[in-house]
Amino acid sequence: MRTRIKICGVQTVESAFQAAQAGADAFGLVFHEPSIRNISIDKAAQIASQKPVFINSVVVMVNPERDFVRTVLDRVKPDYLQFHGEETAEFCRSFGVRYIRSVRVRGPVSLRSVQDEYHDASAFLVDAYRGGHYGGTGDVFNWGMVKFDSAIPAILAGGLNEQNIADAISKVHPYGVDVSTGVETEGKKDKAKIKRFCKAVWDSRQDWD
Q1: Taking all residues of the chain, what is their mean pLDDT, rounded to a whole number?
Q2: Which DSSP symbol is given to 2?
Q3: Distance of CA 144 to the CA centre of its chain
Q4: Domains of the chain by range and CATH?
Q5: How crowded is residue 17: how many other Cβ atoms within 10 Å of its Cβ?
Q6: pLDDT tens across 102-111, in order?
Q7: Alpha carbon distance 195, 177 (integer Å)
Q8: pLDDT per residue as tens digits for the range 62-94
Q9: How many angstroms separate the CA atoms of 44 and 38, rounded?
Q10: Which of 69, 122, 147, 187 is the most buried (most CB within 10 A)?
Q11: Would the pLDDT of 130 be above 70?
């Protein structure tokens, strides 16, 4: 099985094209004001409307207001919503758009138990827990704390980069991987790092069922 790749925290049309050219399957647009990757609705709409063919746009939100989600859906028209806060399953599914549910790991967790509530999620994005910081911290968590026992695909995130991605794939066998900090230089997406990260994913053994 081929490991899918999401480049998160994209802020320019150029970065979206660089992700696609490197072989990524999706890019993330972050709507979370404390994040250095926070983007305006106008800019996100511009990027999404000009995205390359055969790559998905994912809108990332943290505990958003319902009206804000509707506005973003209307203006940006993303392929997926990603909820990275404490949103309930009812809230996540209420917009009629496929969604990715984030699972922040701070102790042993079974994805099967998460599936009991978020049974209609398109994927679970498993990330490091760091207090009030919601993703994009560059922190690696102990992958062994997670039981990847859900029928819903798992996307591994949290401090991934070109140096550790092969190890992550060989140990976790995730459906997909998500990277942000690991492909940046001084807080900006780095074309060379995006290319090397994607190549490292492609070069990794991916022969499991």
Answers
A1: 93
A2: P
A3: 20
A4: 4-203 (3.20.20.70)
A5: 18
A6: 998 988 999 9
A7: 14
A8: 999 999 999 999 999 999 999 999 999 999 999
A9: 10
A10: 69
A11: no
Amino acid type, 132: G
For helices 41-49 and 66-76, what crossing angle results, to 10°? 40
d(CA 112, CA 95): 24
3-state secondary structure 22-91: HCCCEEEEEECCCCCCECCHHHHHHHHHCCCCCCEEEEEECCCCHHHHHHHHHHHCCCEEEECCCCCHHH
Q: Which residue has the tokens 């049974």?
A: 119
- How far, in Å, are 28, 60, 98, 184 from residue 79 at the CA level? 10, 11, 7, 24
Per-residue pLDDT at 180 exceeds 80: yes
Poorest-pLDDT segment among 38-47, 60-69, 200-209: 200-209
Question: Quick one: which H or E segment has residue 116?
Answer: helix 111-117
Q: How far is CA 77 from CA 5, 64, 72, in A?
A: 21, 16, 7
Neighbours of 65 (CB within 10 A): 9
In the three-class reduction of DSSP (H, G, I as helix; E, B as strand; rest coil), residue 150 is classed as coil
Spatial contact of 141 and 158, defined as CB atoms under 8 Å apart? yes
- Kindly tell me if the per-residue pLDDT of 132 is higher than 70: no
Q: How far apart, in whole angstroms, are the C-alpha atoms of residue 142 and residue 72?
A: 34
